TrEMBL record:
It is found in: Membrane. ATP binds at K372. It is a single-pass membrane protein. It comes from Lupinus luteus (European yellow lupine). Residues 632-676 are annotated as: Disordered. Keywords: ATP-binding, Glycoprotein, Kinase, Membrane, Nucleotide-binding, Phosphoprotein, Receptor, Repeat, Serine/threonine-protein kinase, Signal, Transferase, Transmembrane, Transmembrane helix. GO terms for molecular function: ATP binding; protein serine/threonine kinase activity. This is Cysteine-rich receptor-like protein kinase 29. SUPFAM superfamilies: Protein kinase-like (PK-like).
Length: 676
């Protein structure tokens, strides 16, 4: 009888996998596949070092016990410099270990054939059983949401009661996304079901992220998939959205099994009694010695830390060493910023707000930046400043202006932001000439982008943040007219379970303020919703929130929109520069805007529900009630609201006489968050 060595058996196994894979077509096994999805990785040469490293890395993907966390996730890298390759493998949370390994092995064979000689590729394989992603760029810990794909389940049937079905589905997915994102570093996976329309149809749901992602990134990935559902899979009985970092799936048939708890494979047996005996003696000695040494070192370390520990000022909570190191890594040399702005010359001045002057600059590497030079005598210490910078830096979203770094020298405090070239939204929509550059498609995209940004602040970021100063001048536009929310100088920080706060000092801009905030200092996420509603009406109408002439009288935008909505003269609200508009979209936006500016706080929708309203016409809208600032209402307007509006576009506080100069390109500020 011929006895094969383990290496020979492994070789034969690989040959068998290849033979099996060749008996199937690629389309039967790979659900989604992309070669070079980042479009900048390029190709490699056959038999090159990169090719050899790739084969070595993939052959060890599932056998690398150091990176396998025994939960169906694998992370490996191999090689050096330009020939270094990274790979991750992820199996769906309900897949057994053997099936997981089998899926990944088949994926390796098929994907390397399908994307031959291409440095980067990823695929969801075997009906989303597993994900394989390899690249010449770091994958681990990075959120990658594109390219993405979708498919429908079963016979592509559509639901009968779409409204009720979608409501049930949204509630189910909201719960699953929260559970999955809250998972630890070993698994971010959640499944459940809910009774659908008429209590006779069960909807099953499954969501999963790569466990190396942060809670925020996981939530962002899955919420992006939720946003995509109305466009790709509206009213379908079952569908799935597949991304490099997450999967979202639902249907009316059971999608998942009872999850198996992954356990390490049993150790190989050893029949050599003598060797086993020596091994047992060694294990006993180590079992006694190692814990004693570990306990001694741990106690010593704790004692040293207690003795050396000093009280440290902090904004919300004491930052750990990792976060302080992160803050320090964001620090930029003051001289470099001074040189980039030509010593803060007036020629580079972009604008001035209540907290400092904004300058345009260019770093030595050619990157354009916007620098906010804060007041020299703000009374804020270095540690508090760094803590706040760290918090703002964590707010990473494509619809928020990105903080690049900061600098401290003496009393100088500098904030460095990405440069956004197309100035602010008010620069366009309130100018009759420039307004023509924003057609309805662009404005609708801007409304959607602002919505996503606020949803991130309210629901998806690590901390719940109330902006408190949403307005057209604080919405910046990039080169493709994508909106970016800026100026967090008035922002308030909430605990995730906190719903409302109060303040004695009202800050923000009159006209955008919710009545409960302007009159009583009460603010919540619904305060931002009110401001958003005013902003939507401004975008649709091209009119400022006040100073609309109606006969011989002046009225504010809210009163004007409400009056025409009641009269059925919607065309009067629409900016006359807009032509060939989608009536259904523009009327829906006006309707949403009026829902947001209702006086009743509970009647205003959340930003999450607004996002769904904008993306799904199957969701019916409630009837709005009269806005509080209507000139013909019983209560009338807020005291001095109009005069404040005329005097300054950026009134900061009823208790302050400081006004702001016109805001230009990058009116972005350090967050002045206030804890409870």
């Amino acid at each position: 009888m011929v006895v094969l060595s383990p290496r020979s058996l492994s070789f034969l196994y690989c040959i068998l996998v290849i033979i099996i894979s060749l008996t199937k077509t690629t389309s039967e096994t790979i659900s989604v596949k992309y070669c070079n999805p980042s479009e900048d990785s390029g190709n490699y040469t056959t038999n090159s070092t990169y090719h050899t490293n790739l084969n070595t890395l993939l052959s060890n993907l599932t056998s690398n016990t150091e990176t396998n966390n025994n939960n169906g996730f694998y992370n490996v890298s191999y090689g050096q410099n330009s020939n270094k390759i990274y790979a991750v493998g992820l199996c769906r949370g309900d897949i057994k270990r053997d099936n997981c390994h089998s899926c990944l092995n088949k994926a390796i064979v098929n994907l390397t054939q399908y994307c031959a000689n291409q440095k980067e590729a990823y695929a969801w394989y075997d009906d989303e059983t597993c994900l394989l992603y390899y690249s010449d760029r770091l994958i681990y810990g990075n959120l990658i949401i594109e390219p993405w794909d979708y498919s429908w389940d079963g016979e592509n049937e559509m639901v009968v009661d779409a409204v009720q079905f979608n409501r049930s589905l949204i509630n189910l997915m909201d719960s699953l996304i929260t559970r999955a994102a809250s998972g630890g570093s070993s698994r971010k996976y959640a499944t459940s079901s809910v009774v659908g329309p008429n209590n006779h149809q069960t909807i099953y749901g499954l969501v999963q992220c790569r466990p190396d992602l942060s809670r925020t990134d996981c939530s962002s990935c899955l919420n992006e998939s939720m946003l995509a559902l109305p466009g790709c899979c509206n009213n379908m009985k079952g569908a799935r959205i597949l991304r490099p970092s997450c999967i979202l799936r639902y249907g009316t048939n059971t999608l998942f099994y009872v999850p198996e708890v992954y356990a390490p494979p049993p150790a190989p047996s050893n029949n050599n009694t003598y060797s086993q005996g020596n091994s047992d003696v060694l294990k006993i000695a180590l079992a006694v010695a190692v814990p004693a040494v570990v306990i001694f070192l741990l106690l010593s370390f704790i004692i040293i830390c207690i003795r050396m520990r000093k009280p440290k000022q902090s904004f919300e909570a004491e930052e750990d060493d990792y976060e302080i190191e992160t803050a320090d890594s964001l620090q930029i040399d003051f001289d470099a910023i001074q040189e980039a702005t030509n010593n803060f010359s007036d020629a580079n001045k972009l604008g001035q707000g209540g907290f400092g002057i904004v300058y345009r600059g260019r770093l030595s590497n050619g990157q354009e930046i916007a620098v906010k030079r804060l007041s020299r005598y703000s009374g804020q210490g270095d540690i508090e400043f760094k803590n706040e910078v760290l918090l703002v830096a964590k707010l990473q979203h494509r619809n928020l202006v990105r903080l690049l770094g900061f600098s401290i020298r003496g009393n100088e405090r500098l904030l460095v932001y990405e440069f956004v070239p197309n100035k602010s939204l008010d620069h366009f929509i309130f100018d009759p000439t420039k307004a023509r550059q924003l057609d309805w498609e662009s404005r609708y995209k801007i409304i959607g982008g602002i919505t996503r940004g606020i949803v991130y602040l309210h629901e998806d970021s690590r901390l719940r943040i109330i902006h408190r100063d949403l307005k057209a001048s604080n919405i910046l536009l990039d080169e493709e007219m994508n909106p970016k929310i800026s100026d967090f100088g008035m922002a308030k920080l909430f605990d995730m379970d906190q719903t409302q706060g109060e303040t004695n000092t009202v800050v923000g801009t009159y006209g955008y303020m919710a009545p409960e905030y302007a009159l009583h200092g009460q603010f919540s996420v619904k305060s931002d919703v009110f401001s958003f509603g005013v902003l939507v009406l401004e975008i649709v109408s091209g009119r400022k929130r006040s100073c609309i002439r109606h006969g011989e009288n002046l009225e504010d935008l809210l009163s004007f929109a409400w009056r025409n909505w009641r009269a059925g003269t919607i065309a009067n609200i629409i900016d006359p520069t807009l032509i060939n508009v989608s009536e259904s979209e523009i009327m829906r936006c006006i309707h949403i805007g009026l829902l947001c500016i209702q006086e009743n706080v509970a009647g205003r929708p959340t930003m999450g529900s607004i996002m769904l309203m904008l993306n799904s016409y199957s969701i019916s809208l409630a009837v709005p009630s009269e806005p509080p600032y209507s000139l013909d209402s019983k209560d009338g307007m807020l005291p001095d609201m109009q005069s404040s509006e005329y005097n300054s576009d950026a009134t900061r506080s009823r208790e302050s006489t400081n006004t702001s100069a016109p805001i230009s390109v990058n009116e972005a500020s350090i967050s002045e968050f206030f804890p409870r």
